[in-house]
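Late entry, evening session. Most of the bench is empty. Finally got around to the prediction I had been postponing all week. Sequence below, unchanged from the version circulated by S.P.
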Amino acid sequence: MNETMKIIFGLIGGLAIFIYGMNMMSECLQKAAGEKMKKILALLTKNPILGVLAGALTTAVLQSSSATTVMTIGFVSAGLMSLPQAISIILGANIGTTMTAQIIAFKVTDYIYLFIFAGFLISFISKKEKVKNIGQTIFAFGLLFLGIETMGDVMKPLASSAFFVNMIGKVSHIPILGVCVGAVMTLVVQSSSATIAVLQNFAAQAGPDGVTSIIGLTGAIPILLGDNIGTTITAVLASIGQPKDARRTAFAHCVFNISGAILFLFLVKPYAALIQFISPKGNEIDVISRQIANAHTGFNLVMTLIWIPLIPLMVKIVMKLVPDGKGKETEVEVAENPKYLDNKLIAQPAAALQLVAKEVMYCAKLVDEMIGKLQYRNGKIDKENAELVEENAKILQKLYASVNDYFASLYSGGVLTEEQASQSAGMQYILCDIDRIGQLTREIMETVAKQNKGKHKYSKDALKELKKAMEQIQMIYGSCIQAISGDVNMDIKELMRQKEDIMQLGEKMRKNHIARVGKGKCDSKLTIPFNDVLHNIDRIGNSCVNLVEVAKENVTMQAFFAED
C-alpha cells in the first residue's frame, strides 16, 4: 500500500473511531445524567442569562451542540418553549460545545489505553446500570483520544510534502478560503467537534522548519470559523417540516455563527495575538491545540455577550427570514397529528419522555371533553355534542397509535435507562386506560343517540339517573387526571370511595329500571341498551380505579417534567 493510501485510510479510520467514541460518550452520559438534564432544562425562564446557562450546561452533558439544538427545536415545535427562550438556549449551546475542544487539548496520550481498559473493566464487571454507563463513558473517552492519536500519527508525513505545505500556505494566507474549507469539512462529517479535533491535530504537526506549526493559529482560526458555520446545517435539517417557530430557531443558530464568522474574519490577526497572549507559552506545536480550543471558546463567548442584549433583534431577523405562511391546515388535520411528539428527539430520552407525558395529558383532556358532552337537553343528546364525541374519539385513536409507535422507537433505539423504561411502561398503562375510557364514552354516546332516533324513548326518571351517573363519572375522571398529573393534594382514598358510589348507583339504576318496566313507565325494549350504557359506565369506573392505582404507585406525569 502506498503512502497516500495509508494516510487516507488512517485519517478516515481515526475519524471513525473519534466520532464513534464521541457519540458513545454522549449516549452514556445521557443515560448516566439524563434525569439531571431535566433540572438543567428547568432553568429556563424569561431571563436570557439563565437560558444561556441552561444551554451551556445541557451541551456540556450531551457533548453535542447539535443534540441540544435539535432538542430545543423539538420543544419550540411542541409549544413548550418560546422563540426568545430558544434563542438563549442556542447561544448557550455554542459555549457548551467548546468543552470538547478544551478536553482534546489535554495531552493524555500516555493514558489512552488505561482509559480504555479501565472503562471496559468497570462496564464488564458492574451489574448496576449507572455504574456500567460510567464505565462505558470512560471507555468511549479513551476511544475518542485513540481516534485523535491515530489521525495525528498519519498526518506527520504530510508536513514533509512540498505540495501539501504549498496548499496549506494558500489557505493560511486567504482567510475566506479557510472558512470554506472548515464549512465543507463539517458539512461532510456532520460534527464540528470532529473537524475541530482534526484541525487541532493537524495544527500540532511541525512545518518544514521543524519548530513552528504547519498552519499556525492565524491559518487555523478561519477554518475554525468555517466549522462553526458548517454545524448549522444540522439545525436546519432538524427544522424541516417543523412549525415556523422551530425553523426560526434553526435560523437563529445560523445567524449567530455566520455573523460571528463575518466579524472575526476581519479580526483574525489581532484575535490570534490575543489568544496567544492568554494561552500557555511554549513551542508552537506543543501549545497550538490549546490555543485553538481557547480561540473556539473565546469566539462563542464574545458572540454570546454581543447577542444576549440583542435577542429581540435576533427574533425580528429570523421572523423576516421565516415569515408567517398563508397556507394553514384545517383544525381536524392539526388535531389528528401529535401535538407534542418529535421523532428527532428519540436520541434524547429525557426530553422525549417529557413530550410524551404532555401528549398523554392532551389525550386525557380530549376524553374529559367527550365525557362532558354526554349531557341531555329536553330528553335528547344534542347532535353537535354527539358529533364532537365521535370526532374526538377518532382523534384519540390516531394519537394513541402515534404515542405507542413513539414508545416503540424509544425501546428499539436502546436509549432508555432501566428507570426510564419502567416509567415509560407506567405511562403506557395510563394511556391505555385513557383510550379505553374514551372509546367507552363513544359507545355510550352511540347507544343513546341510536335510541333518540328510534320509537322507544327513555322516561324522564331514566334520563335523570343517566345524567347523574355521567356527572359522577366526569367528576371522578377529572380527579383521576389530577392525581396522575402529580397533584399531591389529591385524596386517593376519596377517589376510591367515589368509585364505590358509582358502582352502587349502577346497581340502583338497574333495579329502578326493572321497577319502571314493571309499572309500565319504561319500555321493556330499552332494557338491553340501558344495561349496555350502565355496563360501559361500570367499565369506565374500573378504568378510573386503574388510574387511581397507578397514581398510588407514584407513577405520575410529574416524574417526566422538569422541576420548577
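Two things to note before I forget:
The beta strands are 376-377, 380-381.
The first strand starts at residue 376 and ends at 377.
Will write this up properly tomorrow.
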